[in-house]
Amino acid sequence: MIISIASGKGGTGKTTVATNLALCLSNKVQLLDCDVEEPNAHLFLNPVFQQKEPVYAPVPQINLEKCTFCKKCMDICRFGALAVLKKDVMIFENLCHSCGGCFEVCPENAVIEKERTLGIIEHGSVNDMDFINGRLDIGQVMVPPIIKKVRSYTNPDLVTIIDAPPGTSCPVIAAMNKADIILLVTEPTPFGLHDLKLAVETVKILDIPCGIIINRAGIGNDEVNKYAEKENIPILMEIPFDRKIAQIYSKGQMIVDELPEYREKFSVLFQKIAQLIEKGGQNK
Amino acid sequence: MKELIILSGKGGTGKTSITSAFASLAKNMVLCDADVDAADLHLILNPDFKLSYDFIGGHEALINLEKCTQCGRCIEICRFDAVKDSFKIDAIACEGCGVCVDLCPEEAIDFPETLCGQWYISDTRLGPIVHARLGIAQENSGKLVSLIRQEAKKLATKANLDLILTDGPPGIGCPVIASIGQANAVLIVAEPTVSGFHDMERVAELSRHFNIPAMVCINKYDLNLEQTRKIETHAQKNNIAVVGRISFDPAFTEAMIQAKTIFEYNKDSQAAAETRQVWDAIVSQPAFNAPVNNILQHL
Question: How many CB atoms are located within 10 Å of the residue B81 CB?
């Protein structure tokens, strides 16, 4: 079972839900932190990391002894990553999407693919929970390959909880795609609602069942509840706004440790998730 | 002309509320909402949409099944697993690289442009704004960010405005890198939490990597004084100007619900007074007043 926890807006509580939920399941769990630009789950779960592994993407390197400067590589590249000069070829690694076009098209076999490091994957555990996160190197732009690499460690025998990045573009898709359910965490404010609507549109494109979690309930208004009812999307949990919870979070502590009544609430959340997956979503 | 980019690394620290508050204080300014994935600034500023343009972000492969002989060359060369066994392209997986288009022996693959979103030039009560909406599940957010920043610059030049105030995206990836190149300075809005500190460190490192001067302010500072001090100490050690602290004040949320900036909602609130101090500190910073670094030197 793959549960992807997402939101359009950042800072709504994805990591809070992902980490606390992961601690409350009786099933064996793996947590995949796919917010590789700003991974945070490890700050709350303090996993023991056993292994680090770089994520590479191929980029071209030109063998100038073979190159005839025919420019076919430059012509096929849609990303402007190669510039063929009279006697040299310039490579702009940051623009390369690793599509392999230059490598395929070169008639002289003068394009060699070398590895460029995009980031790292860290493997660890928290008691008997598997913990894997990805971490983009500073200055790198290629996020989806790292997310895909993290997700390649999905173990179908476990409950997989994915902490997704914010937004609605390619990194989010990479973290949501092929999940069994998507939990959209929002806050009941105009920004929260606006970005929730975008996230719901994203989920619709992927055709995956989803449910809403309202965090900081009571801080704003009830427009999110009205929207959920209108769209027939279940609200699976509401976490009230409480300065105490905000302070627990600020210290990197777990809500379920500091406020034990939340253990039961997250267990109920999991039951609702399982039921929703079984039904194939609210509408079906 | 100066350009200030508001970033945070971590989402939800208050970038947009603070950007809109600055818009109430700054004069002769154009706004730019570079969080094209989930733009929210317009919810406060209620823009009067004057001009709207399509954003053609790239291309998408489409197999013409009448010409296709199912030789499988496209499946073999596609690095993104975007060609399904039925010789249809998975639009979500397709990267728009066009390698299959160029190498199909039957020339059976079309490559139409894709409409990836819209961008707008609008008027607001606080000044003009250049903003955008990236289509759902679309790529090339970095390209759209670069485009609207260029347009904001053009507008500022034409209208003789002194400042571009840019509300940036969360994270440190493609759209963030596109939003900071050649800016005068970055303001990092940090929150005093362990994750806020971690994410602020990474975005600070990114601005250092591209040689853009950074400043930091701590929002909701009273939530955790220990983390607040930790952020400030880290900033001082790393040559990042600390420009102030803003209290955790529900007035920000109340203002948002009424689609107002904190100054329009309650200019006498503590948060308003602190935000004003932060703004005054920013405009007097050497980082803000230094000439622009050229990002191209550092790529």
Answer: 11
Test B173 with A177 for CB contact under 8 angstroms. no
This prediction's pTM: 0.94
Give per-residue pLDDT as tens, A130-141: 999 999 999 999
Asked if residue A170 and residue A264 are part of one domain, the reply reads yes
Identify from A36, A37, A103 which residue to disrupt to test chain B contact, counting B C-beta atoms within 10 A and taking the largest count: A37
Interface confidence (ipTM) of the complex: 0.93
Element (H, E) at B63: strand B62-63
Q: Tens of pLDDT along B211-245? A: 999 999 999 999 999 999 999 999 999 999 999 99
A249 close to B (CB below 8 A): yes
CB < 8 Å to A92, chain B: 299
A143 touches chain B (CB under 8 A): yes
CATH number, domain at A169?
3.40.50.300
Sorted by where each starts, the structural domains of chain B and their CATH numbers stand as 2-56+117-298 (3.40.50.300), 61-111 (3.30.70.20)
How far CA A133 is from CA of A16, A37, A235, B173, B197, in Å, comes to 16, 11, 28, 16, 18
A274: DSSP letter: H
Pick from B6, B72, B2: which is nearest to B243 by CA?
B6
Within this chain, do residues A72 and A211 fall inside the same structural domain, yes or no?
Answer: no
